[in-house]
Specification:
The protein has 43 residues and is mostly helical. It has two helices and no strands. The chain starts with a helix and ends in a 19-residue tail after the last helix.
C-alpha cells in the first residue's frame, strides 16, 4: 500500500501514511537512533 501512495503522490504523503500506520500499531513518537560503529580493539 505504501508503494501505491508513493506512486501517485509526493514524499510528504508517504511520510504521513507511514506515520499513521505506526500510530495504528500503537507506537508513539518515533525517532531514529544512530548506531555507533566501533573499530576492532576499541572499547
Amino acid at each position: 500500500m505504501e508503494q501505491q501512495v508513493e506512486a501517485v503522490s509526493d514524499t510528504k504523503a508517504v511520510r504521513n501514511y507511514r506515520d499513521a500506520h505506526f500510530r495504528k500499531l500503537g507506537f508513539g513518537k518515533i525517532t531514529l537512533a544512530q548506531k555507533e560503529n566501533k573499530g576492532v580493539g576499541e572499547k
